[in-house]
Design brief:
Order of helices and strands: HEEHHEEHHHHEHHEEEE
Radius of gyration: 25 Å
Number of domains: 2
Largest sheet: 4 strands, antiparallel
Structural class: alpha+beta
Distance between the termini: 81 Å
């Protein structure tokens, strides 16, 4: 028996074949491009015995700045925890240029409430100093519940909202104050060739704005500076940070700090 196909069936078959070929070619070219499209974005991770957190680089930079300002003011870790919980609730640790009414910045402070000019409030160092200046005036802020201390500073409509962030705030505080060594790891893509020169001088200058003296007077302070440097690595084109016999490298295949590098504790080496 001989099979006969109408012209319509033949036309449909041809269309199906053409579509199949087109899809195959398209998938082939898409797969060829996939390695380029799959380059991950810059990111940071914080790991302590109490848990781990993934951060955007800006969140890590803000966290490092808050810890540095607290160290300059010789404040206890509890003050840092309160600041982190407040900033997580107010801005998710981003330096926002907008907010409710005239609220801006990390802590969503308002010019109309006397916190300072908008330009000042958009400076995380200034905003953090203003937050801590108000916090230390809160009676027994170290002992009262975190939400009460934060609310006494912020005068928010929903002061209860700060408490749920306490656990994450404690993880951040342990890492960025330097109490837990090697706790901050960041990575950022480098596409420029040759790689830009590291801006180590600018990095140290900006660190000094928040921390004051960059002299290392204790191992904890050294790890605070190391954490700050890693958090700001992309901003200042740093590819290595060395401290106390450990090295952070901007290498996507290296997870965390590795043994080796500067063995002393007198300084943090940047490159």
């Amino acid at each position: 028996m001989r099979l006969r196909f109408s012209r319509g069936v033949i036309a449909i078959a041809i269309i199906v074949v053409v579509l199949a070929v087109g899809i195959s070619v398209g998938l082939y070219h898409l797969l060829k491009r996939t390695p380029q499209l799959a380059i991950p974005e810059a990111s940071c991770t914080v790991r302590t015995p109490d848990g781990a957190l993934d951060l955007d680089p800006e969140q890590a930079q803000i966290s490092a700045t808050i810890a540095a300002v607290a160290a300059r003011r010789k404040l206890p870790e509890r003050a840092v925890v309160i600041a982190y919980a407040t900033a997580i609730q107010e801005s998710k640790l981003f330096n926002l240029a907008y907010g409710d009414r005239d609220s801006v910045g990390v802590f969503q402070q308002r010019e109309s409430q006397g916190w300072g000019a908008e330009k000042q409030l958009m400076d995380p160092v200034y905003a953090t100093n203003k937050f801590f200046a108000a916090l230390v005036k809160v009676k027994n802020y170290r002992k009262i519940p975190l939400a009460e201390a934060a609310q006494a500073v912020q005068r928010s409509a929903g002061g209860y909202a700060y408490a749920p962030h306490e656990a994450d705030a404690k993880i951040l505080a342990a890492a960025f104050t330097g109490r837990v060594p090697q706790a901050v790891h960041c990575w950022y893509p480098t596409s420029k060739s040759p790689a830009p020169e590291p801006k180590t001088g600018e990095a140290r200058k900006q660190l000094a704005r928040a921390l004051g003296s960059t002299a290392i007077t204790s191992k904890k302070r050294g790890w605070l500076i190391a954490a700050w440097s890693v958090a700001h690595a992309e901003k200042y084109a740093l590819s290595r940070v060395r401290y106390s016999g450990a090295t952070w490298s901007n290498d996507i295949e290296v997870d965390g700090w590795q043994a080796g590098g500067a063995s002393g504790t007198a300084q943090v080496e940047l490159s």
